[in-house]
Amino acid sequence: MTHHVILGAGPAGVIAAETLRKHAPDDRITLVGDEVEPPYSRMAIPYLLMGNIDERGTYLRKGASHYADLKISQLQSRAKSVDIATKSIALENGQTLTYDRLLVATGSQPVRPPIPGMDSAGVHPCWTLEDARSIMALAQPGARVLQMGAGFIGCIIMEALSARGVKLSVVEMGDRMVPRMMGPVAGGMIRDWCETQGVQVFTGTRVEAIEAGTPLKVRLSNGQIVEAELVISATGVKPNIAFLENSGITCLQGVLTDEYLQTSVPGIYAAGDCAEAFDKVSGTTIVSAIQPNAAEQARVAALNMLGQRTELKGVTQINVLDTLGLISASFGTWQGLPGGEQVELTERQADGGKGRHLSLQFKGDVLVGCNSVGWTEHVGVMRGLVEGAVPLGRWKDILAKDPTRLMQAYLASAQGQGQWSGAADERRR
Q: Is residue 319 situated within a structural domain?
């Protein structure tokens, strides 16, 4: 009987386990997770902070006996090391697991900035349900909260904190908000919008030290001291793969995989936020820490673990963000490519309103990336053009003069390529 071991009980781990069970009813499956709660979605934590759901609402599967019914064994621990010669995993609880097929789906972990005072009471990351409980206890209406980091995850947390009625300050060391998703104009527009909504934003600024006490005193690189009852660290995440050091499994930024999600070691696979997979748009391997990618990678990895040769079609580079009611989106190689062309259009509101911004990046006559702020009607079309690598022909020059004609460009260019389904979906929006 083949034994499949899955390290990580997030969305990738759960979907892989379910896929394995569907196609291999008699194989043995062990799912290893390091938290006491049932498998849950980290992306649901902001909705918990807002009060839209309870803790149970974060669970990936609501049935209490779901995993038992599928004969998926659950084990609470964390991998300490992997021995590929003996096909065994040393766990932190002292146990050793042997496997026939192994899936590494250990996800990400928060980056902990080396700032004096990070261990002070009242300083928390926002990553686990345990973190969420600590934050909810302190983030009462009117409480002063300082958040370090205004990236994609940081902005989602910021939205949840704002809904709790706190007095919020955000410190971002980049020169703009969401610097890994947005260019200077777009990131600046998001910052301006947040400030009109009552959030104090410091960009190009670092937290230098946190002084313990009630309140906490946070010293910034601009010389200011900000007092807060709660400090949240949202300074980014990194693949959770330290336990693979010296294992013989090739890791770059994440666990390097081929088009079948297999690692450099036969029989060992990776999926989700810890996996480094090929992105057909940029032509490079990337870690793409978004849940739709994790789900598809898990499905493909599980099928290949069973010998059903299945190729990953590619990694989706997509982020859509709602920041206090301002919608922004980023697709593909939004920074542009060397030798490529770009076109930008910006409409600012004199009264401090949301404004709109559109940035298109081309390689030849193909749209390879884009940014948008406040331009919601074209989100589906932008994704279709970038992911489909649709040759635009003469429409590329038309878009260079008027980038708002994306819909017409998509319909005309995709017409002969069998890509009407996405356009039809967009038209129904």
A: no
